[in-house]
Amino acid sequence: MSALITRPLALLGATVLAALATVGRVTRFALDAFRHIITPPFYGREFWHALVHVGYLSLPVVGLTAIFTGGALALQIYAGGSRFSAEQVVPQIVALGVVRELGPVMVGLMMAARVTSSIAAEIATMKVTEQIDALVTLSTDPMKYLTAPRVFAGLVTVPVLVAVGDTIGVFGGWFVSTQSLGFNPATYLQNTVDFLEPPDVISSLVKGAAFGVIATLMGCYFGMHSGRGAQGVGRATKSSVVAAAVLILAANFVLTQAFFST
Amino acid sequence: MIELKNVHKAFGAKQILRGVDLSVAKGESCVIIGGSGTGKSVTLKCILGLIRPDQGQIKVAGEDVTATGDRDAFLARFGMLFQGAALFDSLPVWQNVAFRLLRGSLKRPRAEAKEIAIAKLRRVGLGPDVADLFPAELSGGMQKRVGLARAIAADPEIIFFDEPTTGLDPIMAGVINELIREIVVEMGATAVTITHDMSSVRAIADKVAMLHGGKIRWHGPVAEMDAAHDPYLTQFITGSPDGPIETLR
Ligand SMILES: Nc1ncnc2c1ncn2[C@@H]1O[C@H](COP(=O)(O)OP(=O)(O)OP(=O)(O)O)[C@@H](O)[C@H]1O
Ligand SMILES: [Mg+2]
Protein backbone atom coordinates (compact mmCIF):
# COMPACT_ATOMS: atom_id res chain seq x y z
CA MET A 1 0.00 0.00 0.00
CA SER A 2 2.70 2.47 1.00
CA ALA A 3 4.77 1.49 -2.05
CA LEU A 4 1.79 2.46 -4.18
CA ILE A 5 2.13 5.99 -2.87
CA THR A 6 5.88 6.29 -2.47
CA ARG A 7 6.89 4.87 -5.84
CA PRO A 8 5.17 7.49 -8.00
CA LEU A 9 6.41 10.15 -5.60
CA ALA A 10 9.97 8.86 -5.83
CA LEU A 11 9.69 8.81 -9.60
CA LEU A 12 8.35 12.36 -9.62
CA GLY A 13 11.15 13.45 -7.28
CA ALA A 14 13.81 11.85 -9.44
CA THR A 15 12.40 13.48 -12.57
CA VAL A 16 12.28 16.91 -10.97
CA LEU A 17 15.83 16.53 -9.65
CA ALA A 18 17.10 15.45 -13.07
CA ALA A 19 15.34 18.40 -14.70
CA LEU A 20 16.80 20.83 -12.17
CA ALA A 21 20.27 19.38 -12.68
CA THR A 22 19.92 19.88 -16.44
CA VAL A 23 18.78 23.47 -15.93
CA GLY A 24 21.85 24.01 -13.76
CA ARG A 25 24.20 22.51 -16.32
CA VAL A 26 22.69 24.50 -19.19
CA THR A 27 22.95 27.70 -17.15
CA ARG A 28 26.60 27.03 -16.36
CA PHE A 29 27.21 26.23 -20.01
CA ALA A 30 25.57 29.50 -21.07
CA LEU A 31 27.57 31.59 -18.61
CA ASP A 32 30.74 29.86 -19.75
CA ALA A 33 29.86 30.60 -23.39
CA PHE A 34 29.36 34.30 -22.65
CA ARG A 35 32.60 34.47 -20.70
CA HIS A 36 34.39 33.11 -23.75
CA ILE A 37 32.62 35.56 -26.06
CA ILE A 38 34.04 38.53 -24.17
CA THR A 39 37.55 37.24 -23.37
CA PRO A 40 40.34 36.78 -25.93
CA PRO A 41 41.59 34.99 -27.95
CA PHE A 42 38.88 35.48 -30.54
CA TYR A 43 38.57 33.17 -33.50
CA GLY A 44 37.62 35.51 -36.34
CA ARG A 45 37.44 32.88 -39.03
CA GLU A 46 35.09 30.72 -36.98
CA PHE A 47 32.90 33.73 -36.23
CA TRP A 48 32.74 34.73 -39.89
CA HIS A 49 31.83 31.18 -40.85
CA ALA A 50 29.09 31.13 -38.20
CA LEU A 51 27.75 34.50 -39.39
CA VAL A 52 27.33 33.19 -42.92
CA HIS A 53 25.87 29.91 -41.78
CA VAL A 54 23.48 31.20 -39.10
CA GLY A 55 22.54 34.49 -40.72
CA TYR A 56 23.02 34.83 -44.44
CA LEU A 57 22.11 31.30 -45.46
CA SER A 58 18.93 31.47 -43.35
CA LEU A 59 17.52 34.40 -45.35
CA PRO A 60 15.61 32.34 -47.95
CA VAL A 61 13.75 30.20 -45.45
CA VAL A 62 12.97 33.23 -43.28
CA GLY A 63 11.65 35.16 -46.28
CA LEU A 64 9.45 32.31 -47.46
CA THR A 65 7.88 31.55 -44.09
CA ALA A 66 7.30 35.26 -43.41
CA ILE A 67 5.58 36.03 -46.70
CA PHE A 68 3.13 33.13 -46.44
CA THR A 69 2.42 33.79 -42.78
CA GLY A 70 1.76 37.48 -43.42
CA GLY A 71 -0.53 36.64 -46.35
CA ALA A 72 -2.53 34.08 -44.39
CA LEU A 73 -2.85 36.45 -41.46
CA ALA A 74 -4.33 39.15 -43.71
CA LEU A 75 -6.92 36.72 -45.05
CA GLN A 76 -7.92 35.58 -41.55
CA ILE A 77 -8.21 39.07 -40.14
CA TYR A 78 -10.29 40.18 -43.12
CA ALA A 79 -12.61 37.17 -42.74
CA GLY A 80 -12.81 37.55 -38.97
CA GLY A 81 -13.13 41.33 -39.04
CA SER A 82 -15.93 41.25 -41.60
CA ARG A 83 -18.17 39.43 -39.08
CA PHE A 84 -18.51 42.69 -37.19
CA SER A 85 -17.66 44.88 -40.21
CA ALA A 86 -14.15 45.75 -39.06
CA GLU A 87 -12.37 44.66 -42.25
CA GLN A 88 -10.50 47.92 -42.46
CA VAL A 89 -8.28 47.04 -39.45
CA VAL A 90 -6.31 44.52 -41.57
CA PRO A 91 -3.15 46.69 -41.96
CA GLN A 92 -2.94 47.50 -38.26
CA ILE A 93 -3.55 43.97 -36.99
CA VAL A 94 -1.22 42.40 -39.55
CA ALA A 95 1.53 44.83 -38.52
CA LEU A 96 0.95 44.19 -34.84
CA GLY A 97 0.69 40.41 -35.21
CA VAL A 98 3.71 40.06 -37.43
CA VAL A 99 6.05 42.46 -35.67
CA ARG A 100 5.15 41.64 -32.10
CA GLU A 101 4.61 37.89 -32.30
CA LEU A 102 4.65 35.95 -35.53
CA GLY A 103 7.83 37.39 -37.03
CA PRO A 104 10.13 36.62 -34.10
CA VAL A 105 8.46 33.30 -33.32
CA MET A 106 8.56 32.05 -36.91
CA VAL A 107 12.20 33.06 -37.27
CA GLY A 108 13.02 31.49 -33.91
CA LEU A 109 11.42 28.19 -34.86
CA MET A 110 13.15 28.22 -38.25
CA MET A 111 16.44 28.76 -36.40
CA ALA A 112 15.67 25.75 -34.21
CA ALA A 113 14.96 23.67 -37.30
CA ARG A 114 17.81 24.85 -39.45
CA VAL A 115 20.60 26.10 -37.23
CA THR A 116 20.20 24.21 -33.94
CA SER A 117 19.97 20.86 -35.69
CA SER A 118 22.99 21.40 -37.88
CA ILE A 119 25.14 22.76 -35.03
CA ALA A 120 24.17 19.85 -32.79
CA ALA A 121 24.84 17.24 -35.47
CA GLU A 122 28.18 18.79 -36.43
CA ILE A 123 29.50 19.14 -32.90
CA ALA A 124 28.17 15.74 -31.82
CA THR A 125 29.94 14.12 -34.77
CA MET A 126 33.12 15.93 -33.78
CA LYS A 127 32.70 14.62 -30.26
CA VAL A 128 32.07 11.05 -31.39
CA THR A 129 35.09 11.02 -33.73
CA GLU A 130 37.36 12.42 -30.97
CA GLN A 131 37.79 15.74 -32.77
CA ILE A 132 36.82 17.58 -29.57
CA ASP A 133 39.52 15.67 -27.66
CA ALA A 134 41.95 16.52 -30.44
CA LEU A 135 41.07 20.23 -30.09
CA VAL A 136 41.84 20.08 -26.38
CA THR A 137 45.20 18.40 -26.94
CA LEU A 138 46.01 21.15 -29.45
CA SER A 139 45.58 23.70 -26.62
CA THR A 140 42.31 25.00 -28.04
CA ASP A 141 39.28 25.30 -25.77
CA PRO A 142 36.25 23.81 -27.57
CA MET A 143 33.98 26.29 -25.77
CA LYS A 144 35.98 29.16 -27.21
CA TYR A 145 36.58 27.68 -30.63
CA LEU A 146 33.18 26.08 -31.31
CA THR A 147 30.55 27.49 -28.93
CA ALA A 148 31.48 31.16 -28.51
CA PRO A 149 31.53 32.09 -32.24
CA ARG A 150 28.24 30.33 -32.92
CA VAL A 151 26.38 31.84 -29.95
CA PHE A 152 27.71 35.30 -30.71
CA ALA A 153 26.66 34.91 -34.35
CA GLY A 154 23.18 33.92 -33.15
CA LEU A 155 23.02 36.96 -30.89
CA VAL A 156 23.87 39.46 -33.62
CA THR A 157 22.34 37.95 -36.76
CA VAL A 158 18.97 36.70 -35.61
CA PRO A 159 17.67 40.22 -34.76
CA VAL A 160 18.56 41.17 -38.33
CA LEU A 161 16.75 38.09 -39.62
CA VAL A 162 13.73 39.06 -37.52
CA ALA A 163 13.78 42.58 -38.99
CA VAL A 164 13.86 41.07 -42.46
CA GLY A 165 11.12 38.59 -41.53
CA ASP A 166 8.91 41.35 -40.08
CA THR A 167 9.28 43.45 -43.21
CA ILE A 168 8.55 40.59 -45.57
CA GLY A 169 5.65 39.42 -43.38
CA VAL A 170 4.04 42.86 -43.50
CA PHE A 171 4.65 42.88 -47.23
CA GLY A 172 2.92 39.48 -47.51
CA GLY A 173 -0.14 40.97 -45.82
CA TRP A 174 0.04 44.04 -48.03
CA PHE A 175 0.28 41.92 -51.17
CA VAL A 176 -2.75 39.78 -50.36
CA SER A 177 -4.77 42.78 -49.14
CA THR A 178 -4.09 44.90 -52.20
CA GLN A 179 -4.35 42.09 -54.75
CA SER A 180 -7.45 40.24 -53.55
CA LEU A 181 -9.06 42.18 -50.71
CA GLY A 182 -9.29 45.52 -52.51
CA PHE A 183 -7.11 47.69 -50.23
CA ASN A 184 -5.38 50.78 -51.58
CA PRO A 185 -1.60 50.07 -51.64
CA ALA A 186 -0.44 53.49 -50.43
CA THR A 187 -3.07 53.84 -47.71
CA TYR A 188 -2.31 50.33 -46.44
CA LEU A 189 1.38 51.15 -46.00
CA GLN A 190 0.55 54.51 -44.42
CA ASN A 191 -1.74 52.81 -41.90
CA THR A 192 0.96 50.28 -41.05
CA VAL A 193 3.63 52.89 -40.48
CA ASP A 194 1.35 55.16 -38.48
CA PHE A 195 0.19 52.34 -36.25
CA LEU A 196 3.51 50.74 -35.25
CA GLU A 197 5.20 52.17 -32.14
CA PRO A 198 8.91 51.97 -31.29
CA PRO A 199 8.32 49.40 -28.49
CA ASP A 200 6.75 47.05 -31.04
CA VAL A 201 9.91 47.02 -33.13
CA ILE A 202 12.29 46.97 -30.16
CA SER A 203 10.51 44.01 -28.58
CA SER A 204 10.71 42.21 -31.89
CA LEU A 205 14.48 42.66 -32.13
CA VAL A 206 15.07 41.77 -28.47
CA LYS A 207 13.12 38.59 -28.98
CA GLY A 208 15.24 37.85 -32.02
CA ALA A 209 18.45 38.22 -30.01
CA ALA A 210 17.12 35.97 -27.25
CA PHE A 211 15.95 33.31 -29.69
CA GLY A 212 19.25 33.44 -31.57
CA VAL A 213 21.14 32.76 -28.37
CA ILE A 214 18.77 29.95 -27.37
CA ALA A 215 18.94 28.25 -30.78
CA THR A 216 22.74 28.28 -31.05
CA LEU A 217 23.32 27.50 -27.38
CA MET A 218 21.08 24.43 -27.45
CA GLY A 219 22.83 23.11 -30.55
CA CYS A 220 26.23 23.51 -28.89
CA TYR A 221 25.13 22.14 -25.53
CA PHE A 222 23.56 18.96 -26.84
CA GLY A 223 26.36 18.45 -29.37
CA MET A 224 29.04 18.73 -26.70
CA HIS A 225 27.16 16.32 -24.42
CA SER A 226 26.38 13.78 -27.13
CA GLY A 227 26.49 10.06 -26.37
CA ARG A 228 28.69 7.67 -28.29
CA GLY A 229 28.18 6.45 -31.86
CA ALA A 230 25.71 7.38 -34.59
CA GLN A 231 22.88 6.85 -32.11
CA GLY A 232 24.42 9.44 -29.81
CA VAL A 233 24.52 11.98 -32.66
CA GLY A 234 20.89 11.27 -33.57
CA ARG A 235 19.71 11.66 -30.00
CA ALA A 236 21.71 14.85 -29.47
CA THR A 237 20.23 16.42 -32.62
CA LYS A 238 16.67 15.52 -31.71
CA SER A 239 16.98 16.73 -28.11
CA SER A 240 18.58 19.99 -29.19
CA VAL A 241 15.76 20.87 -31.60
CA VAL A 242 13.03 19.99 -29.10
CA ALA A 243 14.74 21.94 -26.32
CA ALA A 244 15.36 24.96 -28.56
CA ALA A 245 11.77 25.06 -29.85
CA VAL A 246 10.22 24.75 -26.39
CA LEU A 247 12.58 27.28 -24.83
CA ILE A 248 11.99 29.76 -27.66
CA LEU A 249 8.22 29.59 -27.20
CA ALA A 250 8.56 29.87 -23.43
CA ALA A 251 10.96 32.82 -23.75
CA ASN A 252 8.54 34.44 -26.18
CA PHE A 253 5.77 34.27 -23.60
CA VAL A 254 8.01 35.70 -20.89
CA LEU A 255 9.23 38.54 -23.12
CA THR A 256 5.73 39.39 -24.33
CA GLN A 257 4.65 39.53 -20.70
CA ALA A 258 7.61 41.76 -19.83
CA PHE A 259 7.05 44.17 -22.72
CA PHE A 260 3.30 44.45 -23.05
CA SER A 261 1.50 43.53 -19.84
CA THR A 262 0.60 46.73 -18.08
CA MET B 1 58.95 12.32 -17.07
CA ILE B 2 55.60 10.54 -16.88
CA GLU B 3 54.49 8.71 -13.78
CA LEU B 4 51.26 6.84 -13.13
CA LYS B 5 50.53 5.51 -9.67
CA ASN B 6 47.64 3.18 -8.89
CA VAL B 7 45.35 4.67 -11.56
CA HIS B 8 41.78 3.38 -11.55
CA LYS B 9 39.04 4.13 -14.07
CA ALA B 10 35.57 2.69 -14.51
CA PHE B 11 32.86 3.55 -17.04
CA GLY B 12 29.60 2.91 -15.21
CA ALA B 13 29.86 -0.57 -13.74
CA LYS B 14 32.65 -1.55 -16.13
CA GLN B 15 36.03 -1.38 -14.38
CA ILE B 16 38.70 -0.73 -17.02
CA LEU B 17 41.85 0.29 -15.15
CA ARG B 18 42.44 -1.36 -11.76
CA GLY B 19 45.65 0.20 -10.52
CA VAL B 20 48.01 1.04 -13.36
CA ASP B 21 51.61 1.83 -12.33
CA LEU B 22 53.88 3.03 -15.06
CA SER B 23 56.80 5.37 -15.40
CA VAL B 24 58.45 6.64 -18.54
CA ALA B 25 61.79 8.42 -18.33
CA LYS B 26 62.70 11.54 -20.31
CA GLY B 27 63.84 10.70 -23.83
CA GLU B 28 62.57 7.15 -23.55
CA SER B 29 60.34 5.36 -26.02
CA CYS B 30 57.78 3.23 -24.23
CA VAL B 31 55.43 0.90 -26.07
CA ILE B 32 52.21 -0.26 -24.47
CA ILE B 33 50.84 -3.56 -25.73
CA GLY B 34 47.77 -5.47 -24.65
CA GLY B 35 44.54 -7.02 -25.87
CA SER B 36 41.78 -5.05 -27.53
CA GLY B 37 39.63 -3.19 -25.03
CA THR B 38 42.05 -3.48 -22.11
CA GLY B 39 42.20 0.29 -21.72
CA LYS B 40 45.36 1.34 -23.53
CA SER B 41 43.74 4.33 -25.21
CA VAL B 42 41.97 5.22 -21.96
CA THR B 43 45.36 5.26 -20.20
CA LEU B 44 46.76 7.79 -22.67
CA LYS B 45 43.66 9.96 -22.35
CA CYS B 46 44.02 9.90 -18.58
CA ILE B 47 47.58 11.21 -18.87
CA LEU B 48 46.38 14.03 -21.14
CA GLY B 49 43.59 14.87 -18.72
CA LEU B 50 40.89 14.12 -21.31
CA ILE B 51 39.54 11.48 -18.95
CA ARG B 52 39.63 11.98 -15.20
CA PRO B 53 40.78 8.86 -13.34
CA ASP B 54 38.61 7.72 -10.42
CA GLN B 55 41.59 7.15 -8.22
CA GLY B 56 45.37 7.34 -8.35
CA GLN B 57 47.93 9.92 -9.33
CA ILE B 58 49.43 10.96 -12.66
CA LYS B 59 52.43 13.24 -12.82
CA VAL B 60 54.12 14.74 -15.85
CA ALA B 61 57.52 16.30 -15.13
CA GLY B 62 56.65 16.27 -11.44
CA GLU B 63 53.38 18.14 -11.95
CA ASP B 64 50.04 16.60 -11.08
CA VAL B 65 47.99 16.36 -14.29
CA THR B 66 44.61 17.02 -12.66
CA ALA B 67 45.90 20.07 -10.79
CA THR B 68 47.75 22.04 -13.47
CA GLY B 69 46.79 25.68 -13.53
CA ASP B 70 47.55 26.54 -17.14
CA ARG B 71 46.14 23.68 -19.18
CA ASP B 72 47.09 25.25 -22.52
CA ALA B 73 50.72 25.53 -21.54
CA PHE B 74 50.61 22.01 -20.14
CA LEU B 75 49.14 20.60 -23.34
CA ALA B 76 51.48 22.61 -25.55
CA ARG B 77 54.20 20.14 -24.53
CA PHE B 78 52.24 17.23 -25.98
CA GLY B 79 51.55 15.81 -29.39
CA MET B 80 48.90 13.14 -29.75
CA LEU B 81 47.96 10.84 -32.60
CA PHE B 82 44.46 9.52 -31.99
CA GLN B 83 43.52 5.97 -32.85
CA GLY B 84 40.89 7.23 -35.32
CA ALA B 85 43.13 10.09 -36.53
CA ALA B 86 40.47 12.63 -35.34
CA LEU B 87 41.19 15.10 -38.15
CA PHE B 88 39.01 18.22 -38.34
CA ASP B 89 36.93 17.55 -41.41
CA SER B 90 35.99 21.19 -41.90
CA LEU B 91 39.64 22.13 -42.50
CA PRO B 92 41.97 21.16 -45.37
CA VAL B 93 44.83 18.80 -44.60
CA TRP B 94 47.53 21.45 -44.22
CA GLN B 95 45.44 23.47 -41.76
CA ASN B 96 44.94 20.31 -39.75
CA VAL B 97 48.67 19.69 -39.61
CA ALA B 98 49.47 23.33 -38.86
CA PHE B 99 46.54 23.80 -36.43
CA ARG B 100 48.76 24.72 -33.50
CA LEU B 101 50.89 26.99 -35.67
CA LEU B 102 47.91 29.02 -36.86
CA ARG B 103 46.64 30.13 -33.44
CA GLY B 104 47.60 30.45 -29.81
CA SER B 105 51.07 30.89 -28.36
CA LEU B 106 52.89 29.22 -31.27
CA LYS B 107 51.14 31.32 -33.93
CA ARG B 108 53.18 32.32 -36.97
CA PRO B 109 52.47 33.70 -40.47
CA ARG B 110 50.16 31.54 -42.61
CA ALA B 111 52.72 31.01 -45.36
CA GLU B 112 55.32 29.84 -42.91
CA ALA B 113 52.84 27.54 -41.16
CA LYS B 114 51.89 26.02 -44.49
CA GLU B 115 55.53 25.44 -45.35
CA ILE B 116 56.09 23.61 -42.07
CA ALA B 117 52.92 21.58 -42.63
CA ILE B 118 54.12 20.47 -46.07
CA ALA B 119 57.53 19.53 -44.65
CA LYS B 120 55.88 17.45 -41.92
CA LEU B 121 53.61 15.78 -44.46
CA ARG B 122 56.66 14.80 -46.45
CA ARG B 123 58.12 13.15 -43.36
CA VAL B 124 55.11 10.85 -43.14
CA GLY B 125 55.34 10.04 -46.85
CA LEU B 126 52.68 12.41 -48.22
CA GLY B 127 53.30 14.79 -51.12
CA PRO B 128 52.42 18.51 -51.23
CA ASP B 129 49.39 17.75 -53.46
CA VAL B 130 47.67 16.28 -50.39
CA ALA B 131 47.95 19.56 -48.48
CA ASP B 132 44.90 21.21 -50.05
CA LEU B 133 42.62 18.16 -49.96
CA PHE B 134 40.05 17.64 -47.21
CA PRO B 135 40.39 14.73 -44.77
CA ALA B 136 37.28 13.02 -46.19
CA GLU B 137 39.06 12.73 -49.54
CA LEU B 138 41.88 10.62 -48.07
CA SER B 139 42.16 6.88 -47.46
CA GLY B 140 42.23 5.59 -43.88
CA GLY B 141 46.00 5.05 -43.92
CA MET B 142 46.57 8.54 -45.33
CA GLN B 143 44.37 10.09 -42.64
CA LYS B 144 46.40 8.26 -40.03
CA ARG B 145 49.60 9.74 -41.43
CA VAL B 146 48.12 13.24 -41.51
CA GLY B 147 47.22 12.72 -37.84
CA LEU B 148 50.82 11.76 -37.24
CA ALA B 149 52.08 14.86 -39.03
CA ARG B 150 49.75 16.99 -36.88
CA ALA B 151 51.05 15.33 -33.70
CA ILE B 152 54.67 16.20 -34.52
CA ALA B 153 54.01 19.56 -36.22
CA ALA B 154 55.00 21.76 -33.26
CA ASP B 155 57.96 19.55 -32.25
CA PRO B 156 56.51 18.56 -28.87
CA GLU B 157 58.56 17.17 -25.97
CA ILE B 158 56.15 14.34 -25.29
CA ILE B 159 54.41 12.43 -28.04
CA PHE B 160 51.67 9.81 -27.82
CA PHE B 161 50.96 7.56 -30.76
CA ASP B 162 47.82 5.45 -30.61
CA GLU B 163 48.35 2.64 -33.13
CA PRO B 164 50.43 4.62 -35.65
CA THR B 165 50.85 1.76 -38.11
CA THR B 166 47.44 0.06 -38.18
CA GLY B 167 45.94 0.35 -41.63
CA LEU B 168 49.28 1.03 -43.33
CA ASP B 169 51.04 -1.19 -45.85
CA PRO B 170 54.22 -2.92 -44.58
CA ILE B 171 56.58 -0.48 -46.30
CA MET B 172 54.77 2.59 -45.00
CA ALA B 173 54.65 0.98 -41.55
CA GLY B 174 58.42 0.64 -41.76
CA VAL B 175 58.76 4.32 -42.70
CA ILE B 176 56.60 5.37 -39.75
CA ASN B 177 58.51 3.14 -37.31
CA GLU B 178 61.72 4.74 -38.45
CA LEU B 179 60.21 8.22 -38.11
CA ILE B 180 59.13 7.57 -34.52
CA ARG B 181 62.57 6.24 -33.69
CA GLU B 182 64.16 9.34 -35.26
CA ILE B 183 61.94 11.69 -33.29
CA VAL B 184 63.01 10.04 -30.05
CA VAL B 185 66.71 9.77 -30.87
CA GLU B 186 67.27 13.06 -32.71
CA MET B 187 64.88 15.37 -30.95
CA GLY B 188 65.14 13.71 -27.56
CA ALA B 189 61.37 13.49 -27.26
CA THR B 190 59.62 11.17 -24.85
CA ALA B 191 57.27 8.83 -26.71
CA VAL B 192 54.50 6.50 -25.65
CA THR B 193 53.19 4.29 -28.43
CA ILE B 194 50.32 1.85 -28.43
CA THR B 195 50.59 -0.89 -31.02
CA HIS B 196 49.48 -4.42 -31.80
CA ASP B 197 52.24 -4.91 -34.33
CA MET B 198 55.13 -6.85 -32.80
CA SER B 199 57.62 -5.84 -35.50
CA SER B 200 56.80 -2.23 -34.72
CA VAL B 201 57.37 -2.91 -31.01
CA ARG B 202 60.86 -4.18 -31.76
CA ALA B 203 61.59 -1.24 -34.04
CA ILE B 204 60.35 1.54 -31.76
CA ALA B 205 60.62 0.48 -28.13
CA ASP B 206 63.23 1.07 -25.49
CA LYS B 207 60.81 -0.28 -22.99
CA VAL B 208 57.67 -2.40 -23.24
CA ALA B 209 54.67 -2.45 -20.91
CA MET B 210 51.88 -4.95 -21.22
CA LEU B 211 48.44 -3.99 -20.00
CA HIS B 212 46.18 -6.84 -18.94
CA GLY B 213 43.30 -7.06 -16.50
CA GLY B 214 43.49 -3.35 -15.76
CA LYS B 215 47.10 -3.47 -14.56
CA ILE B 216 50.57 -3.45 -16.03
CA ARG B 217 51.15 -7.16 -16.26
CA TRP B 218 54.79 -6.98 -17.34
CA HIS B 219 57.22 -4.23 -18.11
CA GLY B 220 60.89 -4.14 -18.95
CA PRO B 221 63.41 -3.38 -21.65
CA VAL B 222 62.51 -4.64 -25.09
CA ALA B 223 65.58 -6.90 -25.16
CA GLU B 224 64.26 -8.86 -22.20
CA MET B 225 60.84 -9.32 -23.69
CA ASP B 226 61.48 -12.63 -25.45
CA ALA B 227 63.27 -14.21 -22.53
CA ALA B 228 60.61 -13.20 -20.02
CA HIS B 229 58.80 -16.04 -18.33
CA ASP B 230 55.38 -14.46 -18.23
CA PRO B 231 52.84 -16.75 -19.86
CA TYR B 232 50.55 -13.80 -20.69
CA LEU B 233 53.35 -11.87 -22.40
CA THR B 234 54.61 -14.93 -24.24
CA GLN B 235 51.13 -15.70 -25.54
CA PHE B 236 50.74 -12.11 -26.71
CA ILE B 237 54.11 -12.02 -28.48
CA THR B 238 53.60 -15.33 -30.25
CA GLY B 239 49.97 -14.60 -31.01
CA SER B 240 48.92 -18.05 -29.86
CA PRO B 241 45.20 -18.70 -29.38
CA ASP B 242 46.06 -21.07 -26.50
CA GLY B 243 47.24 -19.69 -23.19
CA PRO B 244 46.09 -17.83 -20.10
CA ILE B 245 44.47 -14.93 -22.02
CA GLU B 246 40.84 -15.80 -22.68
CA THR B 247 39.66 -15.63 -26.27
CA LEU B 248 36.00 -16.64 -25.85
CA ARG B 249 35.36 -19.12 -28.59
N1 LIG C 1 34.19 7.41 -23.11
C1 LIG C 1 33.91 6.13 -22.82
N2 LIG C 1 32.72 5.80 -22.28
C2 LIG C 1 32.42 4.52 -21.97
N3 LIG C 1 33.26 3.48 -22.16
C3 LIG C 1 34.47 3.74 -22.70
C4 LIG C 1 34.86 5.08 -23.06
N4 LIG C 1 36.10 5.05 -23.57
C5 LIG C 1 36.47 3.75 -23.54
N5 LIG C 1 35.50 2.97 -23.02
C6 LIG C 1 35.57 1.51 -22.80
O1 LIG C 1 36.80 1.24 -22.18
C7 LIG C 1 37.34 0.04 -22.68
C8 LIG C 1 38.78 0.26 -23.10
O2 LIG C 1 38.82 1.12 -24.23
P1 LIG C 1 40.16 1.51 -24.95
O3 LIG C 1 39.76 2.34 -26.11
O4 LIG C 1 41.12 2.08 -23.99
O5 LIG C 1 40.69 0.11 -25.46
P2 LIG C 1 42.08 -0.19 -26.15
O6 LIG C 1 42.90 -0.96 -25.17
O7 LIG C 1 42.65 1.05 -26.71
O8 LIG C 1 41.61 -1.19 -27.30
P3 LIG C 1 42.03 -1.22 -28.85
O9 LIG C 1 43.31 -1.91 -28.91
O10 LIG C 1 40.95 -2.01 -29.48
O11 LIG C 1 42.09 0.19 -29.31
C9 LIG C 1 36.45 -0.43 -23.80
O12 LIG C 1 35.66 -1.50 -23.32
C10 LIG C 1 35.57 0.76 -24.10
O13 LIG C 1 34.27 0.34 -24.44
MG1 LIG D 1 42.73 1.93 -28.45
From TrEMBL, chain A:
The keyword Transmembrane helix applies. InterPro entries: Permease_MalE. Keywords: Membrane, Transmembrane, Transmembrane helix. It comes from the Bacteria. One of its GO terms (molecular function) is phospholipid transporter activity. PANTHER family: ABC TRANSPORTER PERMEASE PROTEIN-RELATED, PROTEIN TRIGALACTOSYLDIACYLGLYCEROL 1, CHLOROPLASTIC. The chain crosses the membrane at residues 52-75, 151-176, 201-221, 241-260. This is Phospholipid/cholesterol/gamma-HCH transport system permease protein. It comes from Celeribacter neptunius. The keyword Secreted does not apply.
TrEMBL record, chain B:
Gene3D superfamilies: P-loop containing nucleotide triphosphate hydrolases. It comes from the Bacteria. The keyword Transport applies. Residues 2-238 form the ABC transporter domain. PROSITE patterns: ABC_TRANSPORTER_1, ABC_TRANSPORTER_2. This is Phospholipid/cholesterol/gamma-HCH transport system ATP-binding protein. GO terms for molecular function: ATP binding; ATP hydrolysis activity. Keywords: ATP-binding, Nucleotide-binding, Transport.
